[in-house]
Sequence to fold (400 residues):
Amino acid sequence: MWKHGFVWSILVVIAALLMVACAPKPVPPPTAAPATTVAAAPQVPVPTMASPTPAATTPVSKQATPTASPDDTVWAKIVDAAKKEGEVNVYSQAWAGDASLAIPKAFKDRYGITVKLIVGSSPSVFLERIKTEKRTGQIVADMVEGGDAHLLNEPGMLVSSGDILPALRERAVWLVDPMAYDSKKKTVSIYRLNQYSPFINTNLVKPVEAPSSWKDLLDPKWKGKIIMDDPVVQSGFYKAALPLLDRKIWDEGYVKTVYGQIYRIERTAEESFGTLARGESSLFLTTSDAAAGRFIMEGAPVRPIDMREGMVFIGASVVAINGGPNPNATSVLLNWLLEPEGQTVVGKARGNQMVRRDVPDFRPLGAQLKVTNPIFLTGEDADRATQLYKDRWFNKLVGR
Fold:
């Protein structure tokens, strides 16, 4: 019997061993793949608020289905329509030289839309042309750009686009409100800044001798050494003067006395800077820094100076013409000019300070100035300055 029991035990052991051998082997847990080093992507402009936002980190089963906001849906349709229009006609004061190439190229690279430029000396010059276009029913202009573009804000001349531009949904990125000139109708968009200050010829005026107060210009030693832009041609004088007059920094007596110190009045800022750079005058009375960059980069001995009572900053603007042939492409261009990409392209091409805080100051270092008391022109100031320009207030005051 013991033999049978022994054999039976042997058979049980063998069967157990066979069951273990035939059982499926456990699969080891997955291991993380070796980390790879990825080169950092090149920096690109910050996306606008119309761009998609990162997905939420909640579990997929609990996530709501992403939906575009009504604003994004409308804007996407505008962009599609703009691409079908394929072009936008811009009457411009400032997009000459490098800007005339850089801005159209960058915008076409982004959207495939052609920018057709007609460059003139001032938006006010374009006004009569656009009136003729409207009268004949053959409107060519889609948009006007320039320091005086707000001058075109006559009844029926401009169309509002401020409510549809995605860039304007951003907050806390602006040095000055882009809609400051026309916050109600939203037809004027400020996209770059001009600083109005006196400039000196550093070969003729030592730093310690440079005026630091507007009152210093009344000193007889400046008689016959000051030049200025012609207020009949350039409305910038009025926009710079009005905030100073309102704050009692200037008054009519001051303006008359300084005019008595004037050596010559030039028709354009470029002519004035040429006169200053050649040493034919010592000081250029308050003018925009927009024209200074080229002279400074070419080594001209011209530099801005601060006046402690106050220095005025003025916005250059863009406006959309009511009835223009390419309204959607116009809106897309207006928005792009307020995005980081457009601000960077224009700022680099023109050497300007732009309206966004998140892009650099593109002015040459020699044109940058630490201002003691900055004053920003308001929309109300701009309207009143426009009226002074139309009334030729300066000429009447000094008897020209």
Q: What stands out?
A: The chain has two domains: 72-192+315-354, 194-314+365-398. Confidence is low (pLDDT under 50) at residues 1-68.
